[in-house]
Amino acid sequence: MQNALNTPARLRYMAFGIMFLKGEDLRGLPLIERMERLRKVLPKDPLSVFSSHLRENGKAFFEKAAASGEEGVMAKRAASRYLSGARSKDWLKIKAGRRQEVVIVGSRRHGGHASIGERW
């Protein structure tokens, strides 16, 4: 992030989860169902990337990610629920040994206005 203004940026909005949709709490739904709902509402835009769920060949996917310079991968059980404020063995961060700086944001509508990164 310190060098962000000194070099050209290749920014992408990586969409990998949805917890609420139109007032409905989706956290209790299985990952696969939440991902499908996210895919349906994510705008088609070259800067937006839908992070799909890979069901097989996880080791090969990790090796490809590591070879291409990615920080690592997130391994999530397809049936896992979203547990606010908790960790579980259903989600594992598998690092490739490299580091990448990212900003994770959330948004929600409140009173007709979109809020980015709001704590609640």
Structure description:
With 120 residues, this protein is of the alpha+beta class. The chain has a single domain, classed as DNA ligase/mRNA capping enzyme (D-amino Acid Aminotransferase, Chain A, domain 1). It is 18% helix and 23% strand. It is built from two helices and eight strands. It has helices at residues 31-41, 58-67, and strands at 13-15, 20-21, 24-25, 48-50, 72-76, 91-95, 107-110, 113-116. Strand 7 (107-110) and strand 8 form a beta hairpin. The chain is globular, with a radius of gyration of 16 Å. The model is unreliable at 115-120 (pLDDT under 50).
Order of helical and strand elements: EEEHEHEEEE
Strand content: 15-25%
Tally of discrete structural domains: 1
Determine Rg (CA atoms, Å): 16 Å
Helix content: 10-25%
Distance between the termini: 26 Å
Write down the CATH class: Alpha Beta
- Which outline best applies? globular
Helices and strands: which structural class?
Answer: alpha+beta
Using the 3D structure, state the CATH architecture: 2-Layer Sandwich
Number of strands: 8
